[in-house]
Write a structure and sequence with these properties.
The protein is of the alpha+beta class. The chain folds into 2 domains: 41 residues, no CATH class; 100 residues, Orthogonal Bundle (Arc Repressor Mutant, subunit A). Helix content is 39%, strand content 24%. The strands form 3 sheets. Strands 5-7-6 form a 3-stranded antiparallel β-sheet. It has a two-stranded antiparallel ribbon with strand order 1-4. A hairpin with a 7-residue loop joins strand 6 and strand 7. Helix 2 crosses helix 3 and helix 2 packs across helix 4.
Length: 161
């Protein structure tokens, strides 16, 4: 996870090089100095570093996990993106699937391994991702239960009984 640092600046009216006060805000002797830096993400949102595990899944994260489970729990980005597009009608690029799977790996929901070099990919190996069922299944179950609770009683509105 990247932590953005925000610096608090002070405009100082004293020129240390010359040892005298400056002539004013527009004067040439004014300078800025960094007083301190604050890690912005940690300050605003608490300590939510990578590898701490997730407590809720986003929609695309959930769909990627479910797609991986449909593909026997292990695959690489291209089949995941193709299957997800086929099942949902949502166009998903392999790059998007890869980035989501990489993020899910950081949260301990997937593990990856590098396959053998592939001549079709100019000798580059594929990165395969596998679902860590002990970590992912409770979150998927929680997400499913929440969605079913929201849909309960609304079927007649959709014309389905």
């Amino acid at each position: 996870m990247r932590v953005t640092r925000v610096a608090l600046f002070a405009i100082l009216g004293f020129d240390r090089e010359n040892g005298r006060s400056s002539s004013g805000p527009c004067g040439s002797n004014w300078r800025m100095q960094v007083l301190f830096e604050v890690p912005l993400f940690t300050t605003l949102f608490g300590n939510t570093g990578a590898r701490m595990g997730k407590t809720k899944l986003g929609e695309l994260e959930e769909q990627i996990l479910l797609t991986l489970l449909r593909l026997n729990g292990e695959s690489y980005a291209v089949p995941v993106a193709n299957e997800l597009s086929r099942l949902t009608g949502r166009e998903t690029s392999p790059a998007t699937a890869y980035m989501v799977m990489k993020r899910l790996e950081e949260h301990g929901l997937l593990v990856s391994s590098v396959g053998t070099p592939d001549p079709e990919r100019r000798g580059r190996p594929r990165r395969f991702y596998r679902v860590v069922e002990g970590a992912a299944m409770p979150l998927l179950s929680q997400s499913r239960d929440a969605m079913l609770a929201l849909w309960e009683g609304l079927e007649p509105r959709l014309g389905k009984a």
